[in-house]
Specification:
Radius of gyration: 30 Å
Number of strands: 0
Shape: flat
Low-confidence stretches: none
Order of helices and strands: HHHH
Structural class: mainly alpha
Strand content: under 5%
Distance between the termini: 64 Å
């Protein structure tokens, strides 16, 4: 029987990997994520939702939005790729 030195190294590395994986899994079980939303944020969300619903219900939108909506529906809206690219590059 031939004993190869590399196989013992591989076995040691494999054993360590399994041990590390078990430790990581145990840490995941212990951690809990919590989130708290402030009362101010909740009231803001309710007010925003009510305002949005009121606008949609009454059909109030800006003339520019209506214009773009009509162009998209009719298939005549053209995207200016160069202007979009310039606007993106301003933030890079």
């Amino acid at each position: 029987m031939k004993i190869d030195a590399t196989s013992s190294i591989y076995a040691t590395q494999r054993y360590r990997m399994i041990g590390n994986r078990t430790a990581v899994q145990e840490n995941k079980k212990q951690g809990n994520d919590d989130i708290e939303i402030s009362g101010e944020a909740i009231s803001f969300a309710k007010a925003f939702g009510a305002a949005k619903a009121g606008l949609e219900k009454n059909g109030h939108t800006s003339p520019r939005v209506e214009s773009i909506r009509n162009m998209v529906a009719s298939g005549t809206y053209k995207v200016e790729a160069e202007q979009i690219a310039d606007s993106i590059l301003m933030y890079i």
